[in-house]
Amino acid sequence: MRNCKVIATYFGLRRKFPHTGTNTITMLQDSIENEINLNPGVQQLDIILVNHDCGHYEGNDYLNSIHNLKTYCGRVIVLHRDWSDGVGMSMNSFEYAFKTFKNKYDYWFFQEDDYKIMEKEYYGKGIKLLNWKKETAFVGYDMGTIYESLKDKNSILTYKLMKFIFFIPILWWGYGRYLREHNRVIEKIIRLIKNNKLHHASGPTGMTHKDYLNEVLNKYGKLPYPELPNPNHNKKDFKRFKGGPISKVIKTFIFYNHYITWWWLYVILGEVEFTSVYYDMGYNIQPYPSKNNTIYSYKINQFKKYKLIN
């Protein structure tokens, strides 16, 4: 049995922390230190860092310097994939790693670089959950807010509203060919919520087996994500708007509408579909029993809080 964890990284500008490539290097240094010291609960686990290469030389040099570095029970493997106009984000990086090493590893854990799993033996526990029921194809580790949406009466209304809000921007920015698929996934989310099912893992942080990933590739030819170029990569920086939370959201939506529309399509057709696609194939998603010290988020500088998944 061979195990790996794929961490998708990127040294370009971001709206939230890490804002810059320098911030990302500092964050990854801490993350790799965690991989060196944390017992994942299996005898072997390689860490595959996939860099969506935007030409940040210091970041690339740092990654090259830790290639083959020993971790708790494996080593760091660094892959650089072409920028390709920013297409694919993390999901394309996950696919890149799987297509490169799909015959080498059995169990696959996917994580974006602004997360840090800190619970001992999390990987071994995940394998047990994945094998607990034959119909389980994915174990999601960051599903607290998704679980909350099942209990929130307004969650369905929110998705219906987002479907309406992004209708014009999707057409305006030339993404009309994705509108039907976008609406289909929104309707699927609503249907799953009504049936009290968890529709996806945030991140999408979680674990699956190579057999399920191969099923997705054989059926669809690729892992889920829209092939849209990044429209904001050449901006010098993202503005930091002042005001309350609602005011900031409105200002960001207006000022960065092209970027936000592109990002939203990746959320729905990439992040959500990366895990919810298994429902389309007759499988289920199993939530990991995350605790309040399981996942640390660099983005919010604290552990993710979980009240309902125990």
> What amount of the residues lies in strands?
15-25%
Number of domains: 1
Oligomer: single chain
The value of Rg in angstroms is 19 Å
Query: Which residues form runs of ≥5 with pLDDT under 50?
Result: none
CATH topology: Spore Coat Polysaccharide Biosynthesis Protein SpsA, Chain A
Largest beta sheet: strand ordering: 3-2-1-4-7-6-8
Number of strands: 10
Termini separation comes to: 28 Å
Main beta sheet: 7 strands, mixed
Q: Encode the helix/strand succession as letters.
A: EHEHEHEEHEHHHHEHHHEEE
What is the structural class?
alpha/beta
Query: Level of helix content?
Result: 40-55%
CATH H-tier superfamily: Spore Coat Polysaccharide Biosynthesis Protein SpsA, Chain A
Classified by CATH, the class is Alpha Beta
Q: What form results from the Cα inertia axes?
A: globular
Q: Helical element count?
A: 11
